[in-house]
Amino acid sequence: MTVGTSYQMINGLSEVIEQYDAVILDLWGVVHDGVTPYPSSIPAMEALKKAGVPVALLSNAPRRSSVVVARMEDMGIARDLYGPAVASGEIAYSQLLARSDPWYAKLGRRVMSVGPVRDMSMFEGQDVEIVKDVADADWLLVTGPNDDYDAVSVYEDLLHAAKARDLPMLCPNPDREVIRGGDRIICAGAIAARYEVLGGNVRWEGKPLASAYDFCLQLFDKGPDAKLLVVGDSLSTDVAGSNNAGLDVALVTGGIHAEELGASRGTLPEKGKLDALLNATGRSITYAVGDFCW
């Protein structure tokens, strides 16, 4: 792992891929924008396949992995371009089913859900009752805002009511924000972070937690000596998680940080700006690349 501001700026993965046995890809901000694949992403995945480099997906998507795969296919991203696909929602889902972890074991049956209808796969096969009012709930599941363009403040009263009853909250997406089709919107992590500020009990699942990488690596069994490269666009999740896991990471600078780095997708930022951002966040990267491309 490269430390501090000692990293290599590259124009594509082909420049360094010979050093690696496999790749772990983030999705939103790297492969697609929540609506459409980026122009270079499918060709890059096809080139990785042609080069014989296996690919796994690890996404902070608060839904079942099967839903993520289906959405990728709808976008025209073929299933044979990658192996395991792990969504943070799947990690939480498996814990909810097992109820063996002490935190999950204490959850009751009555749950209030905050988030869009597209995340309802989290309740498949679960022995729970979905309630509409905080007063009736044993715990909260937050997968995102109910409406994509809500602000965190929309949920202030709900969060205060939940804290008054000391309800635990499960958040299977630590992301604070994402860019969807060009618009910056909040994610579940922004609502859960506010609940923590209020003193609420939040259980997080997904990147940057080590458990997310463990879950992915168990499915993506490449052996203890395999050299892995993570490709992501978020310093707080992809890079922080890779740093925690001791994995090399290529930061796609044209993703969530493009605006603050002053460099659009496909172009590399000024090194001084990237150095300053890395120093401010305490993160280390191995490579900087303007886009996920070959």
Q: What does it look like?
A:
- One of its GO terms (cellular component) is cytoplasm.
- This is Sugar phosphatase.
- Pfam families: Hydrolase_6, Hydrolase_like.
- By secondary structure, the protein is α/β, with parallel strands linked by helices.
- It has two domains: 8-60 and 208-289, Rossmann fold; 106-204, Rossmann fold, CATH 3.40.50.
- The protein has ten helices and 14 strands.
- It has helices at residues 41-50, 65-74, 88-98, 102-105, 156-164, 188-197, 210-219, 235-245, 258-261, 271-281; strands at residues 8-10, 22-25, 55-59, 85-87, 110-114, 129-131, 139-142, 169-171, 177-180, 183-186, 202-204, 228-232, 248-252, 287-289.
Summarize the structure.
By secondary structure, the chain is of the alpha/beta class. Helices cover 31% and strands 18% of the residues.
In CATH, the topology of the largest domain is named Rossmann fold
Distance from N terminus to C terminus (CA atoms, Å) equals 22 Å
Output the CATH class name of the largest domain.
Alpha Beta
- The total count of helices amounts to 10
| Average pLDDT figure | 94
Q: What's the count of strands?
A: 14
Residue stretches low in confidence (pLDDT < 50, at least 5 long) are none
CATH-derived architecture of the largest domain: 3-Layer(aba) Sandwich
Gyration radius over CA: 19 Å
Which range does the strand content fall in? Answer: 15-25%
> What share of residues is helical?
25-40%
Overall shape:
globular
Number of domains: 2
Helices and strands, in order, run as EEHEHEHHEEEHEEEHEHEHEHHE
Class by alpha and beta content: alpha/beta
